[in-house]
Amino acid sequence: MNAQPYLSISSEVGSALAAGRPVVALESTIITHGMPYPQNLSMAREVEDVVRASGAVPATIAIMDGRLCVGVSGDDLERLAQEGHKAAKASRRDMASLLARGVMAGTTVATTMQIAALAGIRIFATGGIGGVHRGAEDSFDISADLEELGRTPVAVVCAGAKSILDIAKTLEVLETNGVPVLGFGTDDFPAFWARTSGHKVDQRFDTADEIARMLAIQSDLGMGGVLIANPIPEVDAWEAAAIEGFIAQALADADAKGIKGKATTPFLLQRIFELTGGKSLTSNIALVKNNARVAAEIAVALAAQPAAPKA
Ligand code: PSU
Ligand code: MN
């Protein structure tokens, strides 16, 4: 393997990593395909501020100018946000092609995990992960995020999975892939805009310190990723029933238009944004910030973990 020549790590992130200081990776498909401009840009900047305020260094990850960029900021972040849906949406299989062609791309959870691992970053904050789509028994549409979590040693803090997905099947595939699903202060796996889904997490942890201890052991054992589910703050949350109607409508519209494959998640998010009169976006931004704060707290706790016990 010879990935280092393709990595471009900002000096701030590079020196934090070299000194063992806490760093939190942030994805960019949420910027290019998950939210409209200019809210995507202000969200990306605010999330970085939240990470800093909690004592860690933010590392926004994207594919730009033929490089795997770690620590995208300033004008580059603006360029990415403006590109929006014109940018590619990079999943695992797209990486080499995009680098070969020099195409700008937002990185999904799967690809952000890969690049974070190459850079030596262990914690990553996002909004929601991809999962098993409703009707997957016919479409076979299962996000590459679920395989990546099984194999790549990065902990992902999210607000659960949206009920545009089949949450029960998503949790089953995570179990099959050997992914621990931890609830941060919750027994119930959250459903993105709603704080509960009616499905249980695998293990509940109530503090960042406890999670850091678990992650240190997971790493000592040489195991893969961990999913940390952090419910949306109460003030920004929707009742599951209130959002369900909009989700059903968006799914019906996607079906009528024949939307398939990687276009599905961005289409549904955009439709739900329109149907809720923009309110889904306000909640989406709030939950990403909340995840960034928790990820930074875990990164700080992880940096303070004692070394593994001697055999
Ligand atoms: N969920 C969101 N916003 C997003 C995504 C998911 O609320 O922007 C993005 C993430 O980058 C995730 C990807 O990794 O969609 C999953 O896409 P797919 O289902 O095509 O794997
Ligand atoms: Mn898919």
Name the CATH homologous superfamily: Indigoidine synthase domain
Number of domains: 1
In CATH, what is the class?
Answer: Alpha Beta
Number of strands: 11
Structural class: alpha/beta
The radius of gyration computed from the alpha-carbon positions, rounded to a whole number of angstroms, is: 18 Å
CATH topology: Indigoidine synthase fold
Ligands and ions found: pseudouridine-5'-monophosphate, manganese (II) ion
Order of helices and strands: EHEHHEEHEHEHEHHEHEEHEHHH
* Fraction in beta strands: 5-15%
Task: State the end-to-end CA separation.
Answer: 30 Å
Estimate the helix proportion, in percent.
40-55%
For the record, the CATH architecture stands as 3-Layer(aba) Sandwich
Integer average pLDDT: 96
- Uncertain ranges: none
Task: Provide the fold topology.
Elements: E1 7-9, H1 11-18, E2 23-26, H2 29-34, H3 39-53, E3 57-64, E4 67-70, H4 74-83, E5 88-90, H5 95-101, E6 105-107, H6 109-119, E7 123-125, H7 136-139, H8 145-151, E8 155-158, H9 167-176, E9 181-184, E10 203-205, H10 208-220, E11 226-229, H11 240-257, H12 264-275, H13 279-303
Parallel strand pairs: 1-4, 2-3, 2-7, 5-6, 7-8, 8-11, 9-10, 9-11
Antiparallel strand pairs: 3-4, 3-6
